Amino acid sequence: MDIQTMILTLQKHWSDQGCILMQAYDTEKGAGTMSPMTLLRSLGPEPWNVAYVEPSRRPADGRYGENPNRLYQHHQFQVIMKPSPDDIQEIYLQSLEALGIDPKQHDIRFVEDNWENPTLGAAGLGWEVWLDGMEITQFTYFQQIGGLEAKPVSAEITYGIERLASYIQDKENVFDLEWTNGVTVGDIFSQPEYEHSVYTFEESDEKMLFDLFTTYEKEAEKLMEKDLVFPAYDYVLKCSHTFNLLDAKGVISVTERTGYIGRVRNLARKIAKTYVEKREELGFPMLKEESAHE
Amino acid sequence: MSNQALFEIGLEELPARFIGDAETQLEKRTKEWLEQNRLPVERVSIYSTPRRLAVLIEGLPDKQQDIEEKAKGPAKHIALDEEGEWSKAAVGFSRGQGKSVEDIYFEEIKGVAYAHVDKYIEGEATKDILKGFKEVILSLTFPKNMRWGNRSLKYVRPIRWLIALFEEEIVPFEIEGVATGNRTNGHRFLGEEVLISQPSRYESELLKQYVIADRSRRKEEIREQLQRLQKEKGWEIHEDEELLMEVTDLVEYPTVFSGAFDESFLTVPEEALITSMKEHQRYFPVHSENKLLPYFVGVRNGDDQFIRNVAKGNEKVLRARLSDAQFFFEEDQKVSIESRLEKLKKIVYQEDLGTLAEKVDRVEDLAVFLSDKLAISSDEKANVQRAAHISKFDLVTQMVDEFTNLQGLMGEKYAKLFGENDEVATAMREQYMPKQAGSPSPETTVGSLLSLAEKLDTIVGTISIGNLPTGSQDPYGLRRQALGVLQIIEDRHFVLSLTELLDEVLVYYEQKGLGTEDRQKIRSDVHEFFNARAAYLLKRDNVENDVVEAVLTEGIGYYSITKEKAHLLSEKRNEESFRYVHEAFGRVLNMSGKAEGSSVDSSLFMKEEETKLFTMHLEIKKEFFKQLDQGEVVESLRTLSDLAEPIHNFFENIMVMTEDRDIRLNRLALLKDIADTIYTFADFNAVQWKQQN
Question: How far apart are CA A175 and CA A66, in angstroms?
Answer without folding.
Answer: 9
